[in-house]
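fyi for ur records
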Amino acid sequence: MKPIRVVVVDDSPFNRKVISEMLESSESIEVVARAFDGEDAIRKIVEHDPDAITLDLEMPRMDGFAVLRWLMANRPLPVLVVSSRESNRSVFKALDLGAVDFVVKPSRTASPKLKELQKELVSKVLSIPTMKFDHVKERVRSAPDIQISPLPDRAKEGSSSVICIAASTGGPPAVQLILQRLPKEMTAPIVICQHMPPIFTKLFAERLCGVAGRPVKEAENGEPLLLGRAYVAPGGMQLRIQIDQGRPALSVTRRSAEDRFAPSANYLFLSAARVFGRACMAVILTGMGDDGKEGAVAIHKAGGKVVAESEETAVIYGMPKEVVKAGAADFSVPLTEIPSMIYRYGESGG
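which gave:
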């Protein structure tokens, strides 16, 4: 197979060097050019026609947002944002404009985190050939409103008491679309496991809160699971549902050395199956890997509902595909149909 050809865009010579070295640690990736600002990036992209770019957002003259807008209008290709912590809120704007994912910038001090970052960066670039980039472009456009008709009482008899949503690459815009289109009268609590680094999950929750029409917050250890609210699993931690003093509550714990993902959908789903059994719904959205498969199987066996995003809309049909292959998906539907599915089977009796 030909290597994935990448242009590295960053105004810092240090970052350009380190990011390039990290990427080229894989024989499957070739850095074909380095650019120092947005204008230079467009020149290099036109000249080299890469498969993907890594993009700094804060740059002089032409910033990363201008590059993204130009790319989506003229030469769409996968963009992986490399974000400094100072510009972390800007990451979600970049995802809205068409970036497929992000990583946190390397620090100048050598540390074990640099190795973790290298592994994450390389893994995300290597996933690009499996990505349906047309689906990213479609999500940049405004999705049509979903009309949800009133349900007969019979449809609500087997309703769920909690909705658990899992997503990875391509997930933030998908989660946002779902929460925006759920009716406010739907009171079942929603718990979200989005693969995302620490700090960013809190900002993601704040962003969702501004568009969802319901309170959304980053989950805290020991807090009760309340009707009408949504919770986001903290980055770098594990989130479970437990019974505390006779009522459902959230448990946030540190990741173990063996954990591949933190937060992990499996931890969340398995705990939901134990606590809620058949009164539980799992939704598995776009993402690479198989996180969530084991937990979805448990929810399915307990009699709960499992919905997987179909290949028709998934940016990366990895996580939902594994759930479907395991025979755990009750439904496999496009993203735009998932809010209706959640409302139909996930409305708490309140």
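The first strand starts at residue 4 and ends at 9. thats all i got for now
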